[in-house]
Amino acid sequence: MADRLRRVPWRALVALVTILTGCGYLWAHRAQVTGLALREGAGVPVGLLTAFAGTVTGGLAWREVLAALGTPLGRLPALASYHSSQIGKYLPGGVGPVAVQITWSRSIGATPALVMRSYLLSLMLSSASGLAVGGLMMAPRWPLGGGLLASAGTAGSVLLLSRRGAAALGAVLSRLPKAPIPAIPVGARWGRAYALMVAGWLLLGLHVGVLLDGSPTGSAAAVGAAICATVTGAVAVVLPGGLGAREGALYWFLTRTATAGPAGVTVALSSRMITLVTDIVLGLVATAVLLHLRRKAGTGPVPRPDPPTPPTSTEGPDPHRERCPSGRNERDERHGEQGFAPATPKRQ
């Protein structure tokens, strides 16, 4: 029993404990959750719609990153691969999304190396854009923290979008051992990917804004808090799906911007449930689409070849290979006489 427990990944235990704790808290405060769901504007249903829209927009942004790398894909294969990988981030390990994308790479016409490059580039571009937009939206309520986050995101965005900055960053990355990013593909597709990521962040963060009542600046600060918290969870790759890190960051950002009040924990956990449902539903649909594409393209598992069978000869025995009574061949006997026999040591 102890050996079985040692083999269970610790990240899976962390994810299970975190999910159970969050569900228990929501059940204990179900009155607040019901209030969020029945709030004017139907907070939870509208939040689900905005989360779906933001996640799909993020998939379109990843498609533009692939196109910038020289591998344009159709919307359906790209979105299917992206959303199926979102389930992978809840698996134990730090590279679940890219591992799932590599699994389906043959079905969408990509290579594992290209998938790895697109994952790392998307992570850098989405983190920079998320911090820039989210920090700017929190700045009116939290000038110091929001300003610092917006400055860091803006600096990263300039570094990734400008040719000189991208060249300098690419030179640094090329010096790393086994660097998977030889160059950053700055261009129209790259800029389009950044714009789609900004739109996706705004739509995704809007679900927290609709969960809360308040002034327009308060809603904007809540959207910015959700964006920066999601970036925090994405960077914390050691945690499955950023569980715990995202909720803690969202609660802290909401507290610093004074937009949540006593319902901050409930809002943070409700936000996780909304994004979890979004990832699961889109992931299941995307997996079904990828299975259909794999069957259509005939890229399923390659069957193992049959073991080779020894050739059978229909001719008679070789007259030159007559066996001796001792079982040795006459030609082998002659070879032994001609010097191929083991040498005997000389006597002194």
Number of domains: 1
Write down the overall mean pLDDT.
74
Q: Tell me the strand percentage band.
A: under 5%
Helicity, as a percent range: over 70%
Global geometry? globular
Number of helices: 15
Rounded to the nearest angstrom, the distance between the terminal CA atoms is 69 Å
Query: What is the alpha-carbon Rg in Å?
Result: 30 Å
Give, in order, the helices and strands: HHHHHHHHHHHHHHH
Catalogue the unreliable spans. 1-8, 299-306, 332-348
Task: State the secondary-structure class.
Answer: mainly alpha
Number of strands: 0
Topology, element by element:
Layout: H1 2-7, H2 10-28, H3 30-37, H4 43-68, H5 75-88, H6 96-103, H7 105-108, H8 112-138, H9 143-161, H10 163-174, H11 188-211, H12 216-235, H13 245-256, H14 264-297, H15 330-340
Task: Give a brief outline of the structure.
This protein is mostly helical.
How would you characterize this protein structure?
- This protein is an all-alpha fold and 348 residues long.
- It has one domain (7-297).
- 70% of the residues lie in helices and 0% in strands.
- The chain is built from 15 helices and no strands.
- It has helices at residues 2-7, 10-28, 30-37, 43-68, 75-88, 96-103, 105-108, 112-138, 143-161, 163-174, 188-211, 216-235, 245-256, 264-297, 330-340.
- Helix 2 crosses helix 3 (30-37) and helix 4 (43-68) runs antiparallel to helix 11 (188-211).
- The longest helix has 34 residues, at 264-297.
- The protein is globular.
- The chain starts with a helix and ends in an 8-residue tail after the last helix.
- 39% of the residues are buried.
- Mean pLDDT is 74; it is low at 1-8, 299-306 and 332-348.
